[in-house]
Amino acid sequence: MCEDYSDEHSIAFLAEVTWESLHHFLSGVAEFESVFHSVEGWFIGLSDSSDEGSWTWMYSGFPSEYGDVQWWPGHPDYSFANHKDCAMMTKNYDHMYGWVDVPCDQKLFATPICQLRILQ
Question: What is the pTM of this model?
Answer without folding.
Answer: 0.89
